[in-house]
Amino acid sequence: MDTAERLRAETRTVWATALCFAAGAIAGFIVLQGPPRPLTGPGSLSQPVAVIAAVIAAAAFVTSTLQHRRGETAPMPPWQSAVSHVSAVALTIVFAAVTALGVLLAGLVFGAGLHDFTAPSLGGGLIAGAAAALGGRFAYTAGIGIRTRDLSALLFGFLAIGTLFAMATAADPLWWQQNFSQLGLGTGGWAFNGTLVVAGLLFATVGSYIGRDLHRLRGDAALRGIAVVVALWAATGLALAVVGLVPIELSRVVHWIAAVGTLLLFAAAAATSAAALPGRPRALAIATIGLGVLLVAAVVLHWPIRLYSSTGLEAIAVGLGLVWMTTFVRVLAVLVPDLPRVSARATLLRG
């Protein structure tokens, strides 16, 4: 993309932001008719504003994708085009979920700081417009050309936002003395469980983009190995989604099998992804060894030293895993060309 095209894209982004604000403000004004509402709690602004902003963010991503990448899949074989379209649908859901949870978390934070604040329908409409503008701009920009490392950062941010919101709305304030699964219990458990389901979808999408980048790097000759990589990331996402869909109060056995399966599948997906890279990038090797040592140390500090609960170990393990993924996709971005690569294979596994 040359300088002139970048400036045109930025101009379109500004107009998209303005349109998102206008759409959000109008929808908010209509939906929030009635007496003034508080920022959070029963009958508050947060829930309807979150829905409005999420819908507009999803629409912004779809619009941007059609504007900037229309025809990109036309020369591709059906299987490659299908993978691209499924990934786009998954990202549409993800951007809606990220926006909604971001609005809900912001409502809790501002609600705690602005006691007794209420807003009439006009003020609520302006708040909805601001939320829609932020979410819509973020999604529209992503539609211009999202990269694998952008998805990794999105996954990290989404898990952080969703977990923080779940913590703030947890039924049991002492949940941290046991494990993160306690956040999925009770009437407020939907926040944590929903976060896991959408994060599972995002894991699978990240795997699809990793497969795309590996294909750009290695070509059709490596498609069988790349298919295994993508399948393992998809399985990791599916297992994580099952953790959210089956909380421990519904079935403790299924929940823990899915949780352990998520960790094992993540390790397998990471190992096969690293093995698919040509050569042995030093940055990735150093990160893998260093993070492995830190994980062993974290396990020792949890058991037998018992410095912290299972919650602490889970947080450290997830954090280290996401740091490794971030390192991997950044190394991959250095190696991979930016231009799409059309497969010459009529089917995925056979020419």
Automatic annotation (TrEMBL):
InterPro entries: DUF998. Coiled coil: none annotated. Keywords: Membrane, Transmembrane, Transmembrane helix. It comes from the Bacteria. The chain crosses the membrane at residues 12-33, 45-66, 86-110, 122-140, 152-170, 190-210, 222-248, 254-277, 284-303, 315-336. This is DUF998 domain-containing protein. It comes from Microbacterium azadirachtae. The lineage of its organism: Bacteria, Bacillati, Actinomycetota, Actinomycetes, Micrococcales.
